[in-house]
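Quick start: what a row looks like.
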Amino acid sequence: MDFQRRTLLAIVVCVLIWVVYASLLAPPPPAPKADLAKTTTEASADAKAATDKAAADEVAAAASPSVDVPLVTHRIATDLLALEVGNVGGFVRRTELLSKQFMGRDERGDDFLKLNGDTSLQVSFDANETDFRMPRGAGWEVVGQTDSSWSLRYKDLDVEILGDLKLVEGYEGLLNLKVLNRSSKRQGHKLMLKTQYGLPKESSSYNIQRGLCATPDDVEEFSASDVTEQSGTIRGQIRWAGIDSKYFLSAVVPTHPVQTCEVRLSDDAAKLVNTISSSAVTLEPNESRTYEFGLYMGTKEMESLSRYAVVPGVHLEDAVDWGWFGGLTRFLGEKMLWLLRVFYNLTGVWGVAIILLTVVVKVVTLPLTFKQMRSMKKMREIQPELTALKAKYADDRVRQAQEMQALFQRAGVNPLAGCLPMLVQLPVWIALYAMLNTAVELYREPFLWLPDLTEQDPYYILPLAMGALMYFQMKIQPSGVDNDQAKMMAWMMPIIFTVMMLFLPSGLCVYIFANVLLSLVQTVIQLRPSPTAAAK
């Protein structure tokens, strides 16, 4: 089988392995470590406790005057993010991304949380470890507001809670909560902070919402399908917790010890919920405890994530999924993303920048390509002798292998040499795929007839054109296999890639199409007769 067919087959195999791995064979979370994160599932006792807590909250809600507080909303903003905040339920009711890239036809920025009337940043307390009761969906008194801050107070006979939400800059913010014991006796409590992220009406394998729990060593993730039947919980030290999609992240960064991070579906199964629980605290009368949380609500741009400064050193950039090979593909992906931006700054068109990046990757990998081509050429030259040996020693497999090895040595051929360059290039391909598949810079960016480089081609022009180019390339490429196999490969490979590209983001399709086109040009050049042969 010649070089191009081996390359294309390897890519298909890699894609299939990735799909199977992601859907069926993903490794379980790491084994528990003492006092560190471990994954648990909720037992029936926990479910009963939650039911009892809900019932207690409802009783408390009926008796609490704070529930009757009227809804008040306000808008706070930075240059990149605006939040609609309120005083009933959670602090955040709606998000709005203010960059021109995210503006819709109504001149309002994208609401990436898609809460649809619900709220996020909801403050509550664990009923099993708290001596007072705060009703679910309690109303808070508004005690202060500016263009960038929102201050609330909840107060009853037993407790007073002051909450101050402030946007700092960009997508960053800060939430301070002060809990004061107003009773005449010692009082315990366990604070919980809940964030929510709306799920799309139609699920997509290319844009999966995940609940994230970052431990000191890793980031544990739970998709909606992972927590359909029971919640997933990480216990131990938590760096940060959040919920993300392919391009956006809502994260909470505690500055104090956090005991658990729990991911589950909302009661209506329309939202993914992440709740962090602080350690239990006991307060004397008139004693208070202050909790501080850093916030991030915005895009998953590497620069914005890595320079997060409200709580330094938490590495929010770990939320970006670089796929296989971990740090290697991340390193390569970041370099290619930098180069993609350089090309965009030169051309002003993201589609053209992708094509130029494809050319650079093709040129950089040419030495490996040539090495692989030479190896495949030598293999084709000795193919008749290999066929003769297989026929001669068909009944003696051991002798056949010995004779074939001797032939390889005489001809100076290493059968594995054709595969090694392909394996070396594999991290580059995966990093390029991951980078293009998660680059928020391409979000809502048009190119030619494509309205959005992060969505699939609406007219399927790129997939069909790529399939035709690939078929033509395989037809003109000489083959070392028999004629029937060559015909099968000439049809099978273009069909597989065409079907795969039908549902890929069009930014990825631009890269694949450009890569196939360059490979076709390379094949035509290779097949061009040499000047000596033309003279004859």
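That is the whole record. Confidence is low (pLDDT under 50) at residues 1-10, 14-66. The two ends are 29 Å apart (CA to CA).
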